[in-house]
Amino acid sequence: MQGFYVMRPIRTPPRKNRPQSLESTLGDLAAQARDQVALADLLREALQPGLREGFAGSDLDPGGTLTVFASAPEWAARLRYEAGNMELAAGNGGWPVKRVLIKSAP
Fold first, then answer.
1. Which residues does residue 57 pair with via DSSP β-bridges, in sequence order?
2. Which of 4, 32, 41, 70 has a 20 to 30 Å separation from 52 between CA atoms?
3. E-state strands within the chain
4. 8 Å CB contact between 85 and 97
């Protein structure tokens, strides 16, 4: 009697959050970029005019940490005094912030 081989279908685990198409992925990236620019513009406007030139950008992670990048270490020291105002401005703009970090941009 010859043995027989039963072929089983190959199963791959489903991927979570798999993008449906390249267009949807690019759309998501574009939306994230627009949000980052809008947040940076909002924060820049919340600063006093003399401090705006030291603001180099920002990032808000999903955990609620707002990272503000200063153009130089001396600007970072000045922007630390404005952390509360930037947190308030971001919250009023619809971005929930739990804490603010000020870093010097490389």
1. 69
2. 32
3. 55-60, 65-70, 99-104
4. no
Read off the pTM: 0.73
Token output for 79: 């922007």
Cβ 84 vs Cβ 50: under 8 Å: no
Tell me: the pLDDT tens digits for 67-83?
999 999 999 999 999 99
58 class by beta-carbon count within 10 Å (0-12 exposed, 13-18 middle, 19+ buried): buried
Write down the pLDDT at residue 55: 96
- CB of 68 within 8 A of CB of 103? yes
- pLDDT value for 10: 53
What's the CA gap between 68 and 42, in Å, rounded? Answer: 12
- Answer whether 55's CB lies under 8 Å from 72's CB: no
Question: Quick check: 60 and 66 in contact, CB under 8 A?
Answer: yes
Alpha carbons 47 and 49: distance in angstroms, whole number = 6
- What's the gap between Cα 42 and its chain centre? 14
